[in-house]
Design a protein that fits this description.
Shape: flat
Strand content: over 45%
Distance between the termini: 90 Å
Number of strands: 19
Low-confidence stretches: 1-22
Number of helices: 1
Largest sheet: 6 strands, mixed
Radius of gyration: 30 Å
Length: 235
């Protein structure tokens, strides 16, 4: 009987050792962290310049090769191109540092490039540059539409006296004047006033959503209107 008990005890010990030995998972090897991509530097078309290079496709279009510098820790790029006259935007992906795009002649554009890396969701975006694509017979270009508004798009601010401000430039160096529209409906149709500076001071009510836009005019009679900006006031 003592031999039987010893045998059973040994069997149970071996069984426990066998079960516990197979249950340990190997420690996973930590994966190296993918470094975040670095923002690129734009090369061409130049900022605030006329683009007169490219292949003319028709009376209305030409093909322009957008170029930028290679950036560190980057596997691909996304070109963001905005038509400043229509307000529409397209995005194009590439692994190269240049990309040919068919665009309208005699039209204003803004562009930037987003750097991306495989294995991470982090991205980096370049500065935004603006240019006019050369058009047939254009002697004097309209101002670039106003941009970089203050208050910024979608922010909430205190009611009372505020100063609306923006940036703008003219390819021909003409002096500019600005007409400002402010309203509680979109598009804003109520004339706020006119100014020869890049700002306008007014008074606004609390707990209200405001829409505004700026029409820039040069001394040659050309004009351009900004996109519709928006902000809200606190209760």
């Amino acid at each position: 009987m003592r031999c039987l008990n010893s045998f059973l005890g040994l069997s149970m010990t071996l069984l426990l050792v066998s079960c516990s030995g197979g249950g340990d998972d190997p420690t996973p090897t930590p994966q190296p962290e993918v470094p975040a991509p670095v923002a690129t530097t734009l090369v061409f078309p130049a900022n605030n310049e006329e683009c007169n290079e490219g292949a003319i496709i028709s009376d209305t279009e030409s093909q322009v090769v957008f170029q930028w510098a290679a950036s560190e820790n980057t596997d691909s790029y996304t070109l963001k191109l905005k038509d400043l006259e229509l307000g529409s935007e397209i995005t194009l992906n590439t692994t190269n540092t240049q990309l040919p795009v068919d665009i309208l002649r005699g039209n204003a554009y803004a562009w930037s490039v987003v750097s991306k890396a495989n294995g991470t969701n982090q991205t980096a975006e370049s500065d935004t540059w603006r240019f006019y694509n050369a058009g047939p017979g254009v002697q004097n270009y309209a101002p670039f539409p106003a941009y970089d508004p203050t208050p910024a798009m979608g922010v909430a601010i205190a009611a009372g006296e505020i100063t609306l401000s923006w940036k703008s430039s003219d390819l021909d160096g003409d002096p500019l004047s600005f007409t400002v529209y402010l309203d509680t409906t979109s598009p804003p149709l109520t004339l706020l006033g006119q100014t020869n500076t890049n700002s306008y001071t007014t008074t606004i009510n609390a707990n209200t959503i405001y829409y505004w836009r700026v029409v820039a005019s040069d001394s040659a009679g050309n004009s351009s209107q900004s996109e519709i900006f928006e902000f809200r006031t606190n209760p």
